[in-house]
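pinned: reference chain
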Amino acid sequence: MSVNVVRRVAGWGTDLPGGALRATSIAWAATAVAGAALGLAGVVPLTVAALAWIAQALFLWFVLARAHDVVIAPSRFGRASLVTLLRSSIVALFAMLAFDPPMDARLQWALVVFAIVALVLDGVDGALARRDGETSAHGAWMDQEIDALFVLVLAALVWRSGDVGPWILAAGAWRYAFVALTLALPRMRRELPFSQRRRVVCVVQLAALVGCLSPIIEPPFAAPVAALSLAILSASFTVDILRLSAEPETPVHASQPT
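pinned: its structure tokens
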């Protein structure tokens, strides 16, 4: 990313794609309101809420910088992108709570409701993108990154609940381990063909982690459920890594599996 891009984004430049500043501002404001409400209600410390807000701000700044860098057309940053970025607010909300367990049943059910909302919005943004002609590689990238962050935060929450060991953090680490692999090995940067398997595995992983957080799955069963979902996710990543390793090396861009 060039210095000019950093300067434009830091200065809220007018040459960013239409709707980009509006969408990121709304998502950031939503996190600020939610964090302040949780902090004032004593659910989480205000300092934790502030840290989650700052972390989301850095992510949104990177979204803006990348949107400028890939020259997104104004029509490609509309309602679908707003919905996608609002999911990042839900992820930030979950991140706040990861620092302050244990949780009572009411808070657990609240997390389940918000997680379901996030999963529904994951489908809504795709439908909106297709309806509004907003589909783009940048939109797919945002969706993928927020999914990866959601898995990482949910895994941290499940671990902090005390029902599952720290090994569940591997579910959130897989995506970033793959990114590190692409940086180390050029052949891993090649594009993978579309696979419905990756989508299904992502949904299974998210559903399993949410289930482990809910009162529905009792503590004795949380660890086996989490272990099974992690095994499925690990197998999916392994399949893609082996596929990239076996194919002849060609100079194409990376596509990270899920």
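why pinned: Residues 19 and 77 are 6 Å apart (CA to CA). Residues 1-15, 251-255 have pLDDT under 50 and may be disordered.
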